[in-house]
Amino acid sequence: MSTGALTESYVQEVVRRVPADQRDDIAGELRATIADAVDAHAESHAEPDGEPDGEPDGAAAERAVLTEMGDPIRLAARYADRPLTLIGPDLYPSYLRMLTLLLGGVLPAVTLALMVVDALDGANVGQVIATGIGTVLSVGAQMIAWLTVVFAAVERFGARVAPRAWTPDDLSEQRGPDEGLRGTCATIVWDALLLFLLVWQHTAEPYRVDGARLQVVDPDLWSGWIWPIIAGFAALITVNLVRVARRRWTFPLAACHAAAQALVTLPLAWLLYRAEFFNPEFLAAVNGDDWTTPDSFYTAVALVVLAVGVSESVSRFRKIAR
Predict the structure, then answer these.
(1) Among 213, 204, 195, 196, which residue's Cα sits nearest to residue 117?
(2) 67 or 86, greater pLDDT
(3) What is 115-147 written as a DSSP string?
(4) How many Cβ atoms are within 10 Å of 58's Cβ, its own excluded?
(5) Separation in Å, CA 299 to CA 133, 184, 191, 209, 280
(6) 3-class state of residue 288 by DSSP
(7) Are the C-beta atoms of 64 and 37 separated by less than 8 Å?
(8) Fewer CB atoms < 10 Å away: N or C end of the chain?
(9) pLDDT band, residue 57 (cuts 50/70/90)
(10) What average pLDDT does range 25-35 have in this prediction?
């Protein structure tokens, strides 16, 4: 029994959703499978005299077989090994833990900080409450959106790692906290807070001197050196989110972390060494006329920043073998 128009339409719906180099093989396999199923279906519904029960051209059998095979989109997803869910069951627990951390820890801290700033600026109670509500809605939506984007990208494009088979021995392991996960989550919160403070001091100009508002960081850096630092913080947050989703460090992930760390560490250390990171007007207001911060202080801070950056990068590579 040859396949009909319905079969050909079904096959085309499947193969157009699979990689191009697999389409011919999948199409041939699918046509043969459907043809065999149609023949078997027609024989099982044949009358005792051997004639099929129903339409002689097998259209009813073909329709029944395609109905049993189901939606071609789902079948194509199985052939291509692509999930139909935005975040699959393997990543969803990590996604939920990270989302809970962000919404339950970072979001309240950011909201409270902005409400305090408004209160210090002389805003009334209604304005402070409005700022809190607006922050929860806007920042919360951004957290949910970007976290979902990262986990969905890992679900679609990340290398698939076969999950280890569960045994009862795992019960004792699950009772103890995952220190690696906690450390990574704490790092994400810290990097996000530093990034927020860096941008916030630029927009809010929180320091006041004789009625004038000053930034803590040199405003001239926003035309150049500050952008690699901001990009580095954003990259660090993204890499650590991917680590939470993947549940372990890999060499490519550690290499990406090292590159992101370098984006933050090298410009920051250079600016500190040259005493060009802080706003000169802010330093003059803080130090007063009788004190000037010695160059050795900036050199020492720059060395500490470099040491921390190198240590963080090396530690990620050491964790690959664990």
Answers:
(1) 204
(2) 67
(3) HHHHHHTT--HHHHHHHHHHHHHHHHHHHHHHH
(4) 21
(5) 43, 29, 23, 28, 17
(6) coil
(7) no
(8) C
(9) low
(10) 84
C-alpha Rg value of the chain to the nearest Å: 30
Structure tokens at 14: 């499947």
Contact 215, 201 (CB under 8 A): yes
- For residues 246 and 90, is the Cβ–Cβ distance under 8 A? no
**DSSP E strand stretches across 138-261:** 207-209, 212-214
Please tell me which residue, 16 or 116, carries the higher pLDDT value.
Answer: 16
Nearest CA among 55, 46, 53, 59 for reference residue 3: 59
Other Cβ atoms closer than 10 A to 218:
19
DSSP code of residue 217: B
- Please count the other Cβ atoms lying within 10 Å of the Cβ belonging to residue 182: 11
Answer whether 193's CB lies under 8 Å from 106's CB: yes
Tokens representing 230?
A: 């901001």
Find tokens 């699979």 and name the residue.
Answer: 18
Q: What is the pTM of this model?
A: 0.50
In what helix (H) or strand (E) does residue 242 lie, and over which residues does it extend?
A: helix 226-246
d(CA 302, CA 307): 9
Q: How many whole angstroms separate alpha carbon 257 and alpha carbon 236?
A: 6
Contacts of 115 (CB under 8 A, 6+ apart): 128, 131, 132, 135
**pLDDT at residue number 55:** 47
Contact indicator for 229, 268 with CB cutoff of 8 Å: yes
Which pairing describes strands 207-209 and 212-214: parallel, antiparallel, or unpaired? Answer: antiparallel
Cβ pair 140, 95 in contact under 8 A: no
* Region for 141 from its dihedrals, namely left if φ exceeds 0, alpha if ψ lies in -120 to 50, beta otherwise: alpha
Residue 207: φ, ψ to 5°:
-85, 135
Tell me the residue type at 106.
Answer: V
* Contact of 293 with 283, CB cutoff 8 Å: yes
The DSSP bridge partners found for residue 217 are 278
* Residue-wise pLDDT tens digits, 94-121: 788 788 777 777 777 777 777 777 766 6
